[in-house]
Amino acid sequence: MLQRLVISLVRIVTNTFFRRIEVVGLENVPDSGPAIFAGNHPNALMDGWLLTAKCGRWPLHFLVSAKLWNYRMLVPLLNACGAVPVYRREDHDGDVDNQSSFDKLYEVIESGQCVGIFPEGISHAESQIVRLKTGTARVALNIADRGKISAPIIPCGLNYIHRHRFRSQVLIEFGQPIAIDERWLENYRQDEQATVVRLTGHLSEALRNVTLNAPDWKTLRFIQSARRLYKPSSKELSPSQYVELNRRFVDAYLAEKDNPEVRVLQEDVENYQSRLDMLGIKDHQLRSQITPGYAFRKIIVRCLTMLALLPLAIPGAILHLPVGWAAATIGERFSYEMDDIATLKVFATILLLPVLYAAIAIFVGLTFDFWWAIAAIAGLTLSFFASVRLMEAEAGLFLSVISVFRLARLGRDVEDLRETRADLVNRIRDRVERKADPGTKRIFTDRDFSDKGGPER
C-alpha cells in the first residue's frame, strides 16, 4: 500500500515540476526480469524520481547514500521505496564495508527485480559525463558469474532543459541494453579487474550516446547560442529534437574547432551573446519587430488569465502554504550537510501532503458526508494546479512588461543587434548547409527556414 502511494506521489511531483517529460527508447526496457538502470546524475534527487516515474518498471531499487538513514522521518519512506544503503568512502574517511549492501543488491536482482545506479557516484553540474566508478560493471558481472540470473545494463540519459527551473522540460533516453553474455563472463573469469574496467568504459560510451556532452560550459554556451540562431522561428523543438540538434552542433564543432573560419564565427557569436546579456534581453526578442499593439494585447491576455485563475487558485495556495513552510523548515534545521537540504524538503513534502489531504477529508466528511469529502479533495487538487498555472502566468506577465520597456528604451542598440543577428544567422546556416552529411536525416525542411513564426520556446 505504501509503495503504491509512493509511486503515485513521485509521478505527481515529477509531472508537476516539469511541463513536459519526453521518453525515448522505452522499447529497450525489458517488460520483465531483472535489469540494472544506469543513468547520468546531473540533478540530485530528481534523477531517481524521474527514472522511477518513467522507466516502466516497479519497484525500482536504488543505491542510496547511507547517511539518509540518519533521518528517522525518512526511514519508513526509504524502506518502502526499497532503497539499498551504500557507504561512501568520502563520508567515512575511506574506511567502509559495503558487502552487506551488495548482498542486498544481489538478492534484489536475483529475485527478478530492477535496480537503479548512478555510476558517476555523485550528482554534479559538469557539462559532460564524468569518469564512472566501476561498481555498476562489477555488480553486473558478479551477478552473471553467480550463475542464478543475468541482468542487462540499461543506459539512461537524463537531459534537462533548464534543469532547476520550475515547469521546464526534460528528455529521458534509454539506450540499447548491454547484455552480460558468455564473452563478457569468460573474460571476467580470466581477468576480473581488466574486464570490469573495459565494461565500465563501454557503459561510459553508451551513456555519452544518450546524453548531451561538451568539453566545458563555455563551449556548450556557444553551441546553444549557435543552435538558437540556426533554428527557424516557425519550428517548435521537442526535447528530443533539442538534444539531438545540440549533439550535432557539438560533434561538428569538435571536428572543426581549429578551423580559422569557425574560430572567428565562435568569437562573433560569443560577442553577440555578451551584448544580449549586458542589455538584459533575449535572442528570441530580436526575431521580429514587436509593435506596441501586439505587446499590449499580450499583456492584457495574461492579466485576464491571472484574474480567471485567481478565485480557484487562492484556496489551494493558502492550504498548501503550511506544508511548504514546514518542509522548508525541516530541510534547513535538520540537515547534516548542505546537499541534504533539498532532499529533506522534497521528502518532507511527500510525507506531509497526504496528512494534509487526509485531515481535510476527515474534517469535511465528519461535518457533512463522504461525498463532500471526496469533492473537497478533488477541489483542493484542482486548486493546487490552478495556483501553479497562476504562478506561470504571473512570471510571463512580469517578463512581458520588462521586455517591452527594455526594447522601447534601448532603441538603436536593438536595431544594431538585429543586424548582427541577421548576419550570424546567414553565416551559421550557410556553414551547416556546406558541411552537413547528406545521409543524415534533417530536423528542419527548406519550408521551415522560409516560414516566419513566433519566438522560440
Low-confidence stretches: 453-457
Strand content: 5-15%
Strand order in the largest sheet? 1-7-6-2-5-3-4
What is the residue-mean pLDDT, rounded to a whole number? 85
What is the general shape? flat
Helix content class: 55-70%
Q: Count of helices?
A: 15
Query: Largest sheet at a glance?
Result: 7 strands, mixed
Secondary-structure element order, as H and E?
HEEHEHEHEHEEHHHHHHHHHH
Structural class: alpha/beta
Ends distance: 40 Å
* Computed Rg: 25 Å
Q: Tally of extended strands? A: 7
Account of the protein in words:
A hairpin with a 6-residue loop joins strand 6 (153-161) and strand 7. 25% of the residues are buried. By secondary structure, the protein is an alpha/beta fold. It contains 15 helices and seven strands. The chain is flat and about 70 Å long. Helices cover 60% and strands 9% of the residues. The longest helix has 42 residues, at 292-333. Helix 11 (292-333) crosses helix 12 (341-367), helix 11 (292-333) packs across helix 13 and helix 12 (341-367) crosses helix 13 (370-410). It has a seven-stranded mixed β-sheet, sandwiched between helices. It has helices at 2-17, 45-54, 75-80, 99-110, 135-146, 182-190, 192-209, 217-230, 239-256, 260-279, 292-333, 341-367, 370-410, 412-435, 446-450; strands spanning 18-24, 35-39, 60-65, 84-86, 114-117, 153-161, 168-174.
Topology:
Blueprint: H1 2-17, E1 18-24, E2 35-39, H2 45-54, E3 60-65, H3 75-80, E4 84-86, H4 99-110, E5 114-117, H5 135-146, E6 153-161, E7 168-174, H6 182-190, H7 192-209, H8 217-230, H9 239-256, H10 260-279, H11 292-333, H12 341-367, H13 370-410, H14 412-435, H15 446-450
Parallel strand pairs: 1-7, 2-5, 2-6, 3-4, 3-5
Antiparallel strand pairs: 6-7
Helix pairs in contact: 1-2, 5-7, 6-7, 8-9, 10-14, 11-12, 11-13, 12-13
